[in-house]
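FAQ
Q: What does a multi-component entry look like?
A: The components come first, one per line:
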Amino acid sequence: MSAQKRISKELAEVTNSPPEGIKISLVDESNVHNWNITMDGPEGSPYAGGKFQLLLVLPTDYPFKPPKMNFKTRIWHPNVTFDEHGSMCIGILKPEAWKPSSKIMSVLAATQNLLVEPVPDDAVETSAAEMFKNDRPKFNKTAAEYTKKYAK
Amino acid sequence: MDSDDDFMSGVSSEEDDVLQDGSDNEDGSADDFGFDEPEPDLGYSQKETVQKKKKSFDTTFTVYHPEDIQGQQDDLIDEVNMILDLRKEDVAILLRHFRWNKERLIEDYMDRPKKVLEDAGLGPSTSGPPKLEAIPGFMCDICCEDEAGLLSFAMKCGHRYCIDCYRHYLAQKIKEEGEAARIQCPQDGCKRIMDAKSLDLLVTADLQARYHELLTRTYVEDKDQLKWCPAPDCVNAIECGIKKKDLDKVVPTVVCDCKHRFCFGCILADHQPAPCELVKKWLKKCADDSETANWISANTKECPKCNSTIEKNGGCNHMTCRKCKHEFCWMCMGLWSEHGTSWYNCNRFEEKSGSEARDAQAKSRVSLERYLHYYNRYANHEQSAKLDKDIYQKTEKKMIQLQSASGMSWIEVQYLNSASQALQTCRQTLKWTYAFAFYLARNNLTEMFEDNQKDLEMAVEALSEMFEKPVTELADSKLKVEIMDKTSYCNKRRVILLADTADNLANGDWDFNIDIASPTSRREGPPDRNLSRYPLIN
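Then the predicted structure of the entire assembly, as tokens:
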């Protein structure tokens, strides 16, 4: 049993009717496992106006194992590490929460949602989380500044 | 099988009585160990035991074999199945959800059946028993295959996937993740729990076996009074009613049918008479300190002024403390200035400053020496037990040779096995008496304890010496009788010591210089102070 059919189907779905503010392309046309994602910073969030690059990697065992997703663009966010890895912590991608029937479409929606509503209790970037909890105006300002700086 | 009969059972007592032909054994205590080695078949059943008096340091427990553990689960499932009108595989899921608390399950289910089912992962279901089907027009939502005749499966929640995906999913959960009791339906967001019957329909026999093994594991782990025997490759579990809060009053040693003796409280090897918390502190202390302490004791002194530990790495006796700049003589520990012109040569033992400094240092060394006193004896018994075992293994080989040469029977050489066992068990006990004594504060009971310790130690060393004799001497019947007598005496002394310590522990009569209540059962306090290296008693 190969995951090719499933991946092709999901890719077609996302390419033909992409969620608002998201563009998808393959890193390498011959490999359906690595996807480039461009995500617009959602309106009403400090990320609005920014364009964020993400890399989505589907493991060989996909869809039985969850995909991996990282921010290639730096982002000031409690749930994304503020470094060159841009590792993110999001519920749906945790191995214990992932189900083989979970779809990439829902991963993308969850990511957009995470930009609008950070989950500071699941933080991976603690200084951002502290700021988010204790000084919201400063957090919004910082996030917007970094968006301007990095997310062109 | 009940422990009262089996623990430290008459297995060996009868053998001892037979083998020791009349050696005095009036309180029957020589039985206080089991054979570690393969059981010699002596022609009578182990079950023919004389009803033993339970000793004060014995713990009541039961050994369960895998089939017993399975049987217990099946019985519970049957019971609930009769009371509640539910499928057995669903009852199993419910019981696991309630951590096998049958009463609570029934009570809650009677009150709110729908909620209970949903919480346990047995939400709303479609009718009909789950089976493999080929449904026209079906496409698997996981692999997106839709060929005609594709076999598919759905649990009662109705989420249908092809058999290959289902198998792959289950194999991953069971093999890679070690999950069994909480495998959910592959549907995103569906909390339906995979039941045993559906699983058996889907996966291969080896996965089924693994699945049931994992389920049994959760059964044992879910129950506080059940614990796995920690011996390698042992599949038994032990049931014991001793609770965590009791551990400052008893040392619950249990013996698995595989002969492994361990503490039910902390799963470490038998450590009677020392209570669990004491053992924990002792082991930590030894891990932290013993090597360092040995070296420090041999190679360093403390600065007489600031007590910094100083290593003299060569050169003259004129020391200048790097920390406080105090100048003193390494030999007499007195002020260097008092040495006048007699440099590089200390002949001034009379000076006041020197003798005071030596006193202070002596005091700070006392704690270290006290620790080393107990540690060395503890370590010695551990080491000797290993050596005794080695000797036995060597001797056993020779005895087999001797058997054929001298015509002695297998039974006739078993006294060596008994002696070896006695040495192992007694040394294990002695070892822990030293950790015990280290933390024991002096009161009117300690002298009795030390006497018991001394008696046992002398007996053990005497037996150990006889045991080391060459095989040709061992074959001598006089030595044989002596060894058997000594074996029986050692075992008796051990019982006396353990009974005495256990009684006092149960009555709270010992004074310890540490808190031996288990950390979870005592009032939350600040964490242990991070003690500096000295003093070593903590």
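Q: Is there any commentary attached?
A: Sometimes. For this entry: Confidence is low (pLDDT under 50) at residues 1-51, 521-538 of chain B.
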